[in-house]
Amino acid sequence: EVQLVESGGGLVQAGGSLRLSCAASGFTADDYIIGWFRQAPGKEREDVSCIRTSDGSTYSADSVKGRFTISRDNAKNTVYLQMNSLKPEDTAVYYCAAEGGLPWANVRWGFREGDFASWGQGTQVTVSS
After folding, report:
1. pLDDT beyond 90 at 106
2. Are 42 and 30 within 8 A, CB to CB?
3. Which of 20, 25, 65, 127 has its CA 20 to 30 A from that of 38?
4. CB burial class (10 A; 0-12, 13-18, 19+) of residue 34?
5. How far is CA 6 from CA 86, 94, 122, in A?
């Protein structure tokens, strides 16, 4: 069973930075897609960024492109989301999710909750204006 634990959330002023971590355990497949989602109060959960563990391929939503960077450390089974130039509209609970054997072609232009079976508990990010 894959388990995911997010950390790194907090309160930051607009223009500031945070780095989220997603520590994974229980991996059994050779390749995983690790995705970051976020959900703001009263809004639907939306995809943010994802990475393929085998080759480091990444996708980021237009809303965060150029500001957020996803990366992975396979030795530590950890995926990071570096968030720079944060805006108040980035305020949300951020979740990481994982799925083994998910074809990159399915997620390279965007991904959905239903693509992922394993989820973390979420970490709150609050950006003040």
Report:
1. no
2. no
3. 25
4. buried
5. 19, 8, 6
Mean predicted confidence (pLDDT) in 17-30: 93
Segment 48-93, tens digit of pLDDT: 999 999 999 999 999 999 999 999 999 999 999 999 999 999 999 9
Single out the residue of 88, 87, 94, 74 nearest to residue 19, CA to CA.
94
Give the per-residue pLDDT at 50.
97
Q: Is 33 helix (H, G, I), strand (E, B) or coil?
A: strand
Q: Answer yes or no: are the C-beta atoms of 44 and 55 closer than 8 Å.
A: no
CA nearest neighbour of 120 among 71, 81, 90: 81
3-state class (DSSP) for residue 63? coil
